[in-house]
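User: Fold this; tokens only.

Assistant: Input:
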Amino acid sequence: MEKIGYKPLSNRIKPVHIANGLFREILGTQYSLETMNTWSKRFKSGKEINSANDIKSKYSEIIDEDMSLDEINELRGYIGQLLDSDKAVTPELKFSALTIASKTQVGSEVQNEFKIPGFLFRILNTKVDEQISPSLKKVKELLNDETDEISKFIRPLTNIDVKSKELEKVKPIETSLTGVELQIRKGFDKLVGNSKTNANKLLFLQRFITYSCFAIMYHLSSKFLDISNRFDSRDRIPLVLDANIGNDSIRIASQESLLLARLNIENFYEKTVENILLANEYSNKTKEDILEEINKLSFKQKKVKKANDNETEPNEEMKNVFIGYFNQTGNLIESYARAIRLIMFSKVINSSDPATSYVALGAKIGLIYGRTKKRYLPTPNILEVLILSVLNDGEMLTLSDFGRKICGDFGIIIGANPEEDVQQLKMWDISEHVPGDLYTSLAENADALSEIYISMGYAKRYADGVIIFSLNK
């Protein structure tokens, strides 16, 4: 996991967890959330833990004497709606993350950050063209601004918790960004560059964190391309957006592209393990050496509800997996890396695997939807974030050019160039599983997505039928 840079091992990672950590890194400061947490969380497992009587007694200096207990609870309900919109506030402060409008809602590190904020901050704090990301200055300014309605409403609570802790200052990173990390950085810089000076503060912070979540998803599914020698720098993992017009071809293509993303997350982890093995001269080892090493491994198995008497010991199962793949491929390093990944996530790590975390996070930002057969079904909010992280201010693109642009940046296929898009899907064996006329379906999908952008003011259809995308709303 250290080689990956973060640990996406939970389907409970929420945007607010990433916001708490990333804003803390940017500010270089964390604040006490005790009072806000107490007011926000009234119940634990259905039982009241902070009664109105307790609140009235403890915080008498900010509560009117004639305020009834019912009125206190009603007020707490409003505060809970403001500060717990992501349902990430917990009775235990060490696990709690608040909705963030300004700096005083930024707390200490919580478990569900899984080192993701630090990874993103390093990308932002690395110099590109001799400059760190302008988003660092922008976000810091906005968080220090406490004139928004939420910050003013909860100021009596934040004035009680005046405690803050300065973090160790981090110098800008001089090493260069490449591949997926560089593309993520470009998206951040465009997003802040496309933010109007008088734009809504809270809206920008929301977009910033939504893009941060998307950036992690993009890194997970596409980093395999960077560390594998099988691909060109222009290759992209296709991500088919479904406009939800009831087209079965697009629905299945989108489902298949999501399955492909999950597969490439597994490939990413396996390739990372392969590189570690190669760096430790495992290419000089034999099949017998690997089997002997597996025998000596000590596993701390994850907890299971009920042990199965017939369950194979991890060492034996790992040997069976390794031998099975080795007999198929003859490649010792690849086979051992795959065996390590499978056993780690099935037997050792007591949490969700990265592919499951990817889907869960995608659902939380409005990119992935579906009960069983999930697919990329974007909401207008994520579509807006994507166009703001792809286009430059003043840039005007036809539908066809916009399709190439968003595909070139993030592998996103909207269907704007059906022949090119089908070729892209064929490269990854997706089109073979799609029924119907995929060319026509892609064109219809692109038109439907264009209508969404038109309704938001990011595109315009002219009399001759040409659609132009721009940020000039």
